[in-house]
């Protein structure tokens, strides 16, 4: 790992904030972030470090950050990877896409996934429908974060008014047992509804009576009160 960056992170680390973050990201035994460690660095500070150094950090260095035991160092790796992807040419975008899939083990909490999956997986696959089958592999993974990647990647498609993959993946995840998947699917359904409520409601009419309650609540959050009541009480 780049020693200069590591030392800079240590300087801005805050043990008090670290303890708060460990609670916020559910790091206790049996929780989704079990065992994760924190330095106590907030996102704006991490973004400044990423902006300062990303140009001089290659994928090999980023891979080292993604292997870190510390959440903020992995998040820094994500920030630098996304920045590098956004400025990359077509060839490098493909390399970063493959790199991302090869390093999902280090992208292992909801913030890491949410900040990267739409911006790398989703963006890369936006004009490559034939390659979107990778999302259907991820959605069937035993790994919670890979399943979340599959649905979050579709956020980029949704922003371009493409809903089919988001709806298909949502349907696969209806029986998922994890609350973080319920929230992610509900969120994506809500995003579809912002753009085309008819499409969202067609999906809900098929599934609202059996879908997880949290998923439904997230999906209908922006509906008017009477419509929310309809879906929650029928």
Arithmetic mean pLDDT: 96
Q: What helical percentage do the residues reach?
A: 55-70%
Radius of gyration, CA atoms, in whole angstroms: 19 Å
What structural category characterises the helix and strand content? mainly alpha
Order of helices and strands: HHHHHHHHHHHHHH
What's the overall geometry? globular
Low-confidence stretches: none
CATH architecture of the largest domain: Alpha Horseshoe
CATH topology term of the largest domain = Leucine-rich Repeat Variant
Residues in β-strands, percent? under 5%
Number of domains: 2
- Total of DSSP H or I helical runs spanning 4+ residues: 14
Q: What kind of oligomer do you see?
A: single chain
Q: Using the coordinates above, name the CATH class of the largest domain.
A: Mainly Alpha
Total number of beta strands: 0
The CA-CA distance between the termini, in Å, is: 55 Å
Largest sheet, described in full? none
Report on the structure:
- This protein is mostly helical and 234 residues long.
- It folds into 2 domains: 108 residues, Leucine-rich Repeat Variant (Alpha Horseshoe), CATH 1.25.10; 126 residues, Leucine-rich Repeat Variant (Alpha Horseshoe), CATH 1.25.10.90.
- The protein is built from 14 helices and no strands.
- Helix 5 packs antiparallel against helix 6 and helix 11 packs parallel to helix 13.
- The model has no long low-confidence stretch (mean pLDDT 96).
Question: Brief description of this entry?
Answer:
The longest helix is centred in the last third of the chain and has 17 residues, at about 180-195.
